[in-house]
Amino acid sequence: MGLHFAQAIGLLAAAGIAGALNALAGGGSFISFPALLFTGIPPVEANATNTVALWPGLVASAMAYLKRLNAPLRVLAPLMVTSVLGGWAGALLLLKTPQHTFMRLVPWLLLAGTLLFAFGNSLRGLVGKTAVVDDLRDISVKAIVLGSITELLVAIYGGYFGAGIGFMALAMLALMGMRDIHAMGAIRTLLAVAINAAAVITFIVARAVLWPQCLVMVAGSLAGGWFGAHYAQRADPKRVRSMVIGVGIAMTAYFFFKVY
Question: 48, 111, 117, 206: which sits with the fewest CB atoms below 10 Å from its CB?
């Protein structure tokens, strides 16, 4: 599918905003994924292209978090394995979903992502009523198994669509007994990279990625991510968060109206 100049500018701007939002608060897909749909791209290819386009920015975020990653291998390895397997399974499920069926799912997926973004902190607090683990080496085998099973479900959703997986991962880590938000953020970001890496490879091998659109969006998301990270300390997190929720609600309402 070709890419007109006006579409390229629009996708560049949308990806730039998405990259900035992801660096500030998350929720960038509420901008970039609908932008691809607005250009007339089929929904499955739009989702695949969006995942690949935003992945480099996610990797950059993970690099910044590496210094806070202090989880022992016995905790991290099972979570990474289930993240990769789930991301791969979710991506395959997306590729096997008919375009019409996925388009009818889009409003519901956007709604789910918006709700997770809006109430993710409450979800984390709700499941957080478990035994607190100050040292990650003290996490029990039972907690690791439970967390890995939960992460597998999170990863399947992440490979299929992905909006809101950060909050689902934080809730899963809280369920395992973790409380250090910085350590949790580092693990969450690494798991998101693993989930999306599996999905990215699957989409590329299946030739589901529209490369002209994708490369334009990669440039925009990296530039937006740099801008968002550079000005993150000046932004009001509550205002940014409210803006993302507002965009999510608007996109959800638009696609419910369009599809149904």
Answer: 206
Residue that the structure tokens 């905003």 belong to: 17
State the pTM of this model: 0.89
The Cα-based distances of 182 to 15, 18, 123 in angstroms read 26, 23, 18
Give which of 95, 67, 68, 51 is closest to 193, Cα–Cα: 51
CB count in 10 Å sphere of residue 260: 7
Single-letter amino acid code for the residue at 95 = L
CA-to-CA distance for 216 and 60, rounded, in angstroms?
A: 17
Structure tokens at 49: 């292209």
Burial 77-95 (b: 16+ CB within 10 A, else e): ebbbebbbbbbbbbbbebb
CB neighbours of residue 6 within 10 Å: 9
Condensed to tens digits (0 to 9), the pLDDT of residues 177-203 reads: 777 777 787 888 889 899 999 999 999
